From TrEMBL:
This is NUDIX domain-containing protein. Pfam families: NUDIX. The keyword Hydrolase applies. It comes from the Bacteria. Keywords: Hydrolase. It comes from Mycolicibacterium iranicum (Mycobacterium iranicum). Residues 2-64 form the Nudix hydrolase domain.
């Protein structure tokens, strides 16, 4: 069975739109990434994407 995953495009507007992307120093060949990850059992899609963004970026005051 394949694992269900979520991914987030995190945008902010500061005069113009900005997209959050990052690199992982431990995995330089992975290139630019956006927050993403797997859904836990019984977790909703929205809860999973907010959790992944928080875990990978530290951002917690977000809306979908």
């Amino acid at each position: 069975m394949s694992r269900i995953r979520v991914a987030a495009y995190v945008l902010r507007h500061r005069g113009s739109w900005q997209l959050l992307v990052f690199e992982q120093p431990a995995h330089p060949d992975a290139g630019l990434q956006i927050p993403a990850g797997g859904i836990r059992p019984q977790e909703s899609l929205s809860a999973a994407v907010l959790r992944e963004v928080g875990e990978e970026t530290g951002l917690v005051c977000l809306s979908i």
